[in-house]
Write a structure and sequence with these properties.
Layout lengths: L1 H29 L3 E5 L2 E8 L3 E5 L7 E4 L5 E9 L4 H13 L2 H47 L2 H19 L14 E3 H4 L13 E3 L5 H26 L15 E7 L7 H13 L1 E6 L12 H10 L7 E4 L9 H8 L3 E2 L5 E4 L2 E5 L19 H17 L4 E5 L7 H5 L3 E6 L6 E7 L5 E6 L20 E9 L2 E10 L5 E3 L3 E2 L4
Helix pairs in contact: 1-3, 2-6, 3-8, 6-7
Length: about 500
Amino acid sequence: MVARRRVLRGLGYLLVWLVVAVPAWGLLFSHSSTEMVVASHDAVVRPNFDGQVRLDMGPYLPDVRSTSGGWIGVDIVGGKTTATTAPELAVRYAAIAAHPDAEQQRVREEIGDLLADSALRAAVLGLVPIGLWLLLGASRRAELRRRVAPRSVAASVTAVAVVVVLVAQPWRHEPEHVGDGVWLNVAKAFPEVSVPPELSGWEIQGGFVTEGTRRLVFSLLDTYKTSKVFYRDVADRMDEVTDRLHPKGEGETVAVEVSDRHDNIGMDEVVRAAADAAGATVVIDAGDDTSTGQPWEGFSLDSLDNAFGGDEYDARVAISGNHDHGTFVSRYLQKRGWTHLTGKAVTPFADVRIIGVDDPRSSGLGNWRDQKGLTFDEVKATVADDVCKLDEQGDRIATLVVHDANLGATALERGCTDLVLAGHLHVQKGPTRVLGTNGKVGYSYTNGTTGGAAYAIAIGSKLRRDAEFTFVTYRDGRPVGIQPVTVQTTGMVSVADYVPLDLG
């Protein structure tokens, strides 16, 4: 009998908790929001329960929406952006939309965090009435029933309701959609253009389709189709060049070097496809992933991280280039598990000792130990001293990663490292064999621009110039070979000969 009462009491507590917690969770979750950068905009992201993904595109373009494929949707309201013209903004939209996986994943993660936070808060709210019930105790509850007037009970219930409402704050962040009922299928709104099949389910707010926005949308769709087709076609054809890639031998580790991506996220799937064909398990990023190093370029870093995520990669190491101004890029990648090389020797994979430094010409960079604002030449000399000291101690550095090969030239001339890997020039240089003053041999190699960038700009529907990435093979903790791969502006892929590194 006692056990039965305990079970019934437990079921009663559970029922009370569910009655309070479940509605509270729905209320808290549907009125929660987070601020993040989406598609190069400062944006407010809010979950909803109508299963719709709705994007407020700002004053230049009509809002768009589609189904999320589930019962939870999201409202994304775009805010500030650095784009100065509508065409520039359209190019960004098209490039990101053509390769959306990384942005979608990050939004899903943010919604998941809101879901978990709301659930936790709701669970605590559900325990409040149970806690009060237990705190009062049986005798005190009986006494209150005898003494407390119904009016007092009503006042107490009202007070609790007010507290719940204040915690939930249902009046905050209620999404508003001007003309929300006027939605047109994209294909019907633009019957004169061929809408890609993957966009056929999207709808736009028809009331905002003016002649100006119509021309802008035409340009956006054209850029979208060109970008998606061009890079997907190159990635799909990587199997055709597999037999030209140097086969990875037993005991060898292959790293892929990327540099100067400059926001061209289209090339990420191409590099990953080639890296899979080459058996690469390491990524070495020699900098300039962005054009300005600003938060709006987070989409580029999301794409890079998404392309080389997963258990297949043993290490992902990176430095910042001269265009990755400040510390945003390095901090962003570090949070996602990348190793930011900061002038200290590390062994991230296969007994390979590596040192790397950010380019000192980038704003906010150039700090060395406790010294601030060192010049390029001062960092160059300091790097050489540190690398040579380690070499004298028998702790030779297999690879020195810098953005500009000139930063590692002194260390190489003194014979203190096996290989200097760099980028910056946007054209390949090397591998060049250097006999150091100490009689030891090293190589200098500069990778071309992985993003196919002209100057610091690469985002767009096609390559602005030939794009390049490079495979570096390691054995027994040392580099033993280099093989560049070039994607031409026509989409043709050129694989250079494998160059053995004779380190003596």
